[in-house]
Design a protein that fits this description.
- The chain is α/β, with parallel strands linked by helices and 471 residues long.
- It has helices at residues 3-7, 11-25, 29-46, 48-59, 63-89, 126-137, 151-164, 177-183, 197-209, 232-244, 264-279, 295-310, 360-368, 383-391, 427-433, 458-470, and strands at residues 92-94, 103-111, 114-118, 141-145, 170-172, 190-194, 213-217, 223-226, 256-260, 314-317, 321-322, 327-328, 331-334, 351-357, 375-379, 397-400, 421-422, 435-443.
- The protein has 16 helices and 18 strands.
- The strands form four sheets. It has a seven-stranded mixed β-sheet, sandwiched between helices. Strands 5-4-3-6-7-17 form a six-stranded mixed β-sheet, sandwiched between helices.
- Strand 3 (114-118), helix 6 (126-137) and strand 4 form a beta-alpha-beta unit.
- The longest helix is centred in the first third of the chain and has 27 residues, at 63-89.
- The structure holds nicotinamide-adenine-dinucleotide.
Length: 471
């Protein structure tokens, strides 16, 4: 250990976890479930009101959205683990080739060891605790690093962590960039990071120094396609809900719309109507609409809007900003120039640019000129169009005639592709991400290799020839 490693403020915490890793790892699946049940009680009862209040203070998140998007997904992860952990942790038998006659083989899912989970601010509970459920289910010890940008939530998370876990199982570290930089110097066995693509690259670079495996849940520009056969009213209701939940600060929110030019006017009219229906004439007073997390992000969004307008974009509705309240009105833009920054960067706010296409090839080309997205949504009643769109694009997840909700089915892997993420989370996929898949083979009777031990001769060459041909 060199001097800088000894001075690392988190070395002691890391060592405490490292020392207890095998004790924690060797608990039965029932003991792991007991821990998860305690976490469930903390979320459902003990801290439910604290969670709602903290998120309201952080960015005026409506209680219903907190229950739906922060508490429910973690509880449903726990419920699935309660049902499935026995089989996930059991022996996963696989076949053994004839050439290895006399042996049996299986995969042992064992915990990776000391893990680091780093979360963003936009769903601070869900995105710190859901991976924690997978990590604990898999038998790991964990350092948690919530985001500094949702400080009220981070405080409650610390209370929950201390209430549920012993300090030799899970330790929560508060802080921002400098603290995370120190943590990243430690030789974790796995890092699970959720956040922006830019920071994801930093995490991967730092992890590479210790050859630590990573799961990166990142962002990107998720397209939504509405073809001429779609049910416009139903599609737009889902799109407005998906875009305005959390004031658009959702990694899988529809980022931009690609609408068939035949239905453009109908879609825009319906967008205006639905925004009013959901959030009233003045969404600033609506209880169902959150605020932007801080001044910096509001200014970022304002700049994106100004840049689009300076290049000729039309505001179809919205556009108002109240800096005192970190408020931005749900905003729909049309006539957006291809070179506008809003079509290059992830928007992560309540602005929806509407682009048009006349052929599916054109829509596919627009999607494929960008990085591979985290999600893609298709609204269509034409199976041929759906197949063409799916077969000619690559994305982490896709909903057909809906959006966001694939996140809530934990039987599906969740994650991105390349710049939108590496690795998958949720359910068994999350458990797998936090597990070392140990290859196990047991020899029961004499080994076939005995037939070819040196010194080699013609007979042994024949044995290998037979093996090459038949087994
Ligand atoms: P962020 O990348 O700025 O921060 C995420 C975490 O990294 C925070 O805990 C922060 O303290 C830490 N961090 C920030 N800069 C760092 C640095 N230079 N070095 C080390 N650590 C650093 O992301 P954010 O603003 O909190 O969240 C928004 C982003 O997260 C969006 O891009 C969104 O798409 C993405 N996101 C992805 C998912 C997903 O599941 N794929 C979910 C939510 C958010």
């Amino acid at each position: 250990m060199n001097q800088t490693e000894e001075q690392n403020p988190y070395r002691e915490a890391f060592n405490t976890l490292k020392e207890s890793q095998f004790k924690v790892a060797n608990r039965t699946y029932k003991q792991r479930i007991q821990k998860l049940k305690k976490l469930r009680v903390a979320l459902e009862h003990t801290f439910k009101n604290d969670i709602r209040q903290a998120l309201y203070e952080d960015f005026k998140k409506p209680f219903l959205e907190t229950d739906l998007s922060e508490i429910y997904p973690v509880i449903s992860e726990i419920k699935l683990a309660q049902r499935e952990l026995k089989s996930w942790t059991g022996k996963h038998s696989v076949s053994t080739p004839w050439a290895l006659f006399g042996a049996t083989s299986w995969i042992k899912y064992e915990p990776k060891g000391v893990c680091l989970i780093i979360a963003p601010w936009n769903f601070p509970f869900n995105l710190l605790l859901s991976p924690l459920v997978s990590a604990v289910a898999a038998g790991n010890v964990v350092i948690l690093k919530p985001s500094e940008m949702a400080p009220h939530s981070a405080k409650v998370l610390d209370k929950i962590s201390k209430y549920v876990f012993e300090p030799n199982e899970v330790i929560l570290v508060q802080g921002g960039i400098p603290e995370t930089e120190e943590l990243l110097k430690l030789p974790f066995n796995h890092i699970f990071f959720t956040g922006s693509t830019a920071v994801g690259k930093i995490i991967m670079r730092e992890a590479a120094k210790n050859l630590t495996s990573v799961t990166l849940e990142l962002g990107g520009k998720s397209p939504t396609i509405v073809d001429a056969s779609a049910n416009i009213e139903a599609a737009v209701q889902k799109i407005v809900f998906g875009k305005c939940l959390n004031a658009g600060q959702t990694c899988i929110a529809p980022d931009y719309l690609l609408v068939h030019d035949k239905v453009k006017d109908r879609v825009i009219d319906q967008l205006k109507k639905t925004i009013k229906q959901f959030y009233s004439e003045n969404p600033e007073t609506a209880v169902s609409f959150s605020r932007i997390v801080n001044q910096k992000h509001l200014e970022r969004l304002e700049k994106l809007l100004q840049n689009a307008l300076s290049l000729g974009a039309t505001v179809e509705c919205g556009g108002l900003i109240n800096k005192q309240q970190n408020y931005m009105e749900p905003t729909v833009l049309s006539d957006v120039a291809p070179q506008a920054n809003i079509l290059k960067e992830e928007i992560f706010g309540p602005i929806l640019p509407v682009l048009t296409f006349s052929t599916l090839e054109e829509a596919i080309a627009i999607i494929n000129t960008r990085e591979r997205p985290l999600a893609m949504y298709i609204y269509s009643k034409t199976p041929k169009n759906i197949t063409q769109l799916v077969n000619n694009t690559r994305t982490g997840g896709t909903c057909i005639n809906n959006n966001l909700v694939h996140f809530l089915n934990h039987q599906l892997p969740f994650g991105g592709v390349n710049s939108s993420g590496i690795g998958k989370s949720h359910g068994f996929f999350g458990f797998e991400e936090f597990s070392n898949k140990r290859a196990m083979l047991k020899q029961h009777i004499w080994a076939t290799t005995k037939l070819i031990y040196p010194p080699y001769n013609k007979f042994k060459q024949k044995v290998v020839d037979v093996m090459l041909k038949w087994f």
